[in-house]
Design brief:
alpha/beta, binds manganese (II) ion, inorganic pyrophosphatase (n-terminal core), Diaminopimelate Epimerase, Chain A, domain 1
Length: 322
Amino acid sequence: MKVPEEIVELLKREQSFTIVSHINPEGDALGASIALALALRLLNRDVRVFNRDGVPYMYGFLPFSELVETGMDRERLKNSVLIVLDCNDLERVGLKEVECKKIVVIDHHQTVTDFGHIRWIEPESPAAGLMVYNLLKELGTVIDRAMAVNLYAAIAVDTGTFRYENTTPEVLRAAAELVEAGVNPGEVSRRLYESWSVNKFRLLVSMLKTVEIVNTGNINSAISIITLDMFRETGADASDTENFINFPRMIESVDISAMFREVESGCWKASLRSKGNCDVSLIASHFGGGGHKNAAGYKVCGDIEEVKRGLLEAIQDLVATR
Ligand SMILES: [Mn+2]
């Protein structure tokens, strides 16, 4: 991975930075943001970290997660370099417009926008955290334990803790170095996977009860639903649903896991995950959404039975016949 010289020079030259990441943040967005902020602080830079939705409960263990603010100081931003992490447009950040000194984009998602003055997009990188790790090495800052935990968590989340196909030798080498810097992998795994609230667990149980496995042509889809009533009954919230979609995917015969989460009465966020060659981005874009081959999503309003039927028809038309 080649770190753009322009970015290294900018970080060395400028004094004020504002780091932002996407709405509904997960470990990669947060860990990469916090680690970069800590490194810039070590270089005596003025740094703020912004995320519109703040730090979900489960990521409270990240060292210095309290640095993440949900309010943006617009006056300060005017003289600050904006660093956009783990996404590459303002809409994903949840901001309409910005007035700042310069915009740097650091992301591993391939998109078609040209937002930002300096764009470092590395679609082959499994995590934004790995890009920040390489950036810090290039900057020559020490990676202390706090930074290491944030970077390790970022990389762990986006590689399914080294289980997904994006787990490259480079990832494992970086992880080894982060462990040497003081990360306890067992503890991070415990925090990520074995620290659920009872409410979250109850919501998963409710969701699993809705799973239907439907065959269309040569594709088996597992469809699940989370309604506003289910949130009310369990006391869980939207951030608790991260990863729920992966549970039906555990079934060997399932090719697509689709989860409909009610965002407002009668309107749904559809998330799609697939295995292997089954391209769910075709389905998402058919409904005006987007994503990658194995992970995509869209928004839809209507009666849930009709919404499900619409999805199954799209699977039949776009994927099953291919
Ligand atoms: Mn990411």
